[in-house]
Amino acid sequence: MMKKILLLWVIATVTVTSMAQDRMQGRSGQNFEMSNFNGVITGKVIDSLDRTGVEFANIALYKQKDSSLVTGTLTDASGSFMIEKLMPGRYYVDIKFIGYQSRRVSGIMVSPRSPKVDLGTFSILAASENIDAVVVTGEKKMLLHNLDKKVFNVDKDIAVEGGTAADVLQNIPSVEVDTDGNVSLRGSSNVNILIDGRPSMLNSMEELPAQMIDRVEVITNPSAKYDPDGITGIINIVLKKRKEPGYNGMVSLNAGTGNKYNATVNMNWRQDKVNVFANYSFRRGQMDRYSIGDRVTLFNSGADSSFLSQNTEGQSNMFFHNIRGGVDYFFDSKTTLSFTGNLNFRSFDMDNNVLSNSYSNFNSNTLQNTRISLNSNDGIGHEYSLNFKRTYDTPGKEWTADAFFSRNTNNNLNNINQQEIFNTVPTTALERAETDGWMNTFTFQTDYVTPFGNGGRIESGLKAQIRRSDADYAYTIFNALTSTWDFDANRSNHFVYSEEIYSAYGIYSNSFASGKFSYQLGLRVEDQHAKSDQRTTNQVADVNRLNLFPSAHIRWEPNPINSLQLSYSRRVNRPNVMVLNPFLNTSDKFNWSQGNPYLEPEFTSSIDLSHNLNFPKTKITTSVYYRDTRNGFSRRMTVIDTVATQPTLTTFINLSHYENIGAEAVVTQNIAKWWRLNASYSYYYSKLFGDVVSGANEGSSWNVKLASFFTIGKNVDIQLTGNYRAPSITVGGSGRGFHMAGGAQGETKEMYWVDLGARINVLNKKGTITVRISDIFNTQKMKYSSWDTNFYSYNESWRDSRVVFVGFSYRINNYRMRPEKRVDSDDSFDMVE
After folding, report:
1. Is the CB of residue 101 less than 8 Å from the CB of residue 54?
2. Across 362-371, 411-420, 698-707, least confident range
3. What is the average per-residue pLDDT within 235-259?
């Protein structure tokens, strides 16, 4: 099948390129004064602060003598542009992009002696930056809009100082993180989370320090270039990596109440053709967790009932070390080879004490169970990537090739002490569960981009992704008579999973009406081969699927203040390995779980319409969206009344489909020079069809996030953040595990909290002191209920979320501090002929 996809990719690339060339050649018959003359203007547009290319900036070309419009185009992903088919004459160029100040380049001369004119690199300023006569200073914009994604610059966010990636995501509009660290986007946990564009090796977002994160990209309707995984889209966490000349670095230390510590060291050195970077981070976190839960089960048409009450107290201790480094070698200005390696060591210990009381009114049986578990989880993860990038003389033409390998090993040992009193008769059981597992992932990808005409672009690529995983779960019981640990075959299992996905994509993009309208059309084809093998029970399931994933984006930008964008994509959510394992896990007497090897992936068609308004002091982004998910799967809970303890069995099933309708608004308001306000509102409505319990098939919810930023003098910043989530039904399951907050059988209750942070610059701004208080009023508690035809359950869970963090950071050679850029006070720049 891979050969067929390769052939399809080659044919599509050649065909579309030939069409583009025919289109260009078709114009040659036009009656020009000089039919053989082809004037060309090239250039590059970058952000004035972070020096990165600005994609989709409008480039409009005018005649110098009468200011008549000649043509227009858009910049590519690197910020480069090219305008061809020009006649000799004088021109000027206007550069515009929403959220940035316009810039004009004048005095451009195209002549027979100089038919090709390279304008070089031009920086544009964020609209909120102040310009004096000589010097420009400022900070990166917190929110940027590209054609297919929103970019949130979070490296200046005071509210996450000393925190983790979970804290960072918590402050992103439309993103939610529950008390267990599960991430949701637009009300659904079916989101694909990447780190530097690749699947994360992390077991939890709590393992990644916030200081390592540069920005977060939220892509609700990804183009065909991206993997289609994730119903609501992609959250890509981009880590910091510097390339400034010379030697620079930063050291950060943070400490929080309740034995919470972290430290990061970032170093970078660049000279001539070599750039070397290294990062080390350490995190130690202690977390106290609590939960209470009640369940009522009815039998015999409600005539009889049983009651179960559970109270849990637990403490987790996490130790995490991460070492990341790499080297970039620049063969020349157009060719780069990069190598990156990442190694992490993690240790996660969890102590849980669960007290359960069960009573049945129809047989007068009572059961009191105390389950003490000491869980130790150790793992090592390492990944390596090799990246090649080649650009060409033609602006925007680029070829990349990437190879990636990761291996993640995990050893989990859970010692369990269960003490029971059943009708006044006490018993004690010592049990042990041990899991040895590993997962290997290999990925190869190559992408090719070629421009044509005035603003047109073709992107195409191939990708192969191979995964292998193995989990051996052994359960033993202590035999008091022989003082040995006896193997329990009924509660042990060995599960092996393999998956291969081969894909190809093609994207065509262009613009018209002088760049005011831009569009992108794409198609991705994927061939999936998967096999799940439950070796204990000899259950094998094979999967072979071929799927198409189209995407489309169009944007209208009539002026630098307004832009309107419409997008569509087809997405998929494939069940995780844990959810596919068919073995019945009965290690907990009251809570059983079982995977479903025949669970089908769910497919979603998503439409998104958004509008951006950009005034000097106010920025408003609004959007509405609709999602239709077919073959959706969800967590399903039932009570097994044929067993004495009447456990709750959790598994996954496929629904017929469900629909989501939502609206969002994000507002940034500069109230005064010292006060700025960010606010976001998100509303969504969900309706489920299929095998759904009555009363849980539809509902709506909303959330609000407010962040207020205060600047006191030149060295003090304060940030106050508030979050509120309204009650909501639980729509669908993530397909990634058996956590309680997912599924189509319940409702989560409201939750709210407030954070406060301050940052003080010291040592001539080389040092920074930060203080942060999370959940000031200690209100961050998760409440949820579930029900079926014969049971109802209610649960609350919370942790020690009110924490005081104190941190200090020191920059070496002004690491992360942007150099001041000297520019002329006039927006017009003349070229010397």
Report:
1. no
2. 362-371
3. 84
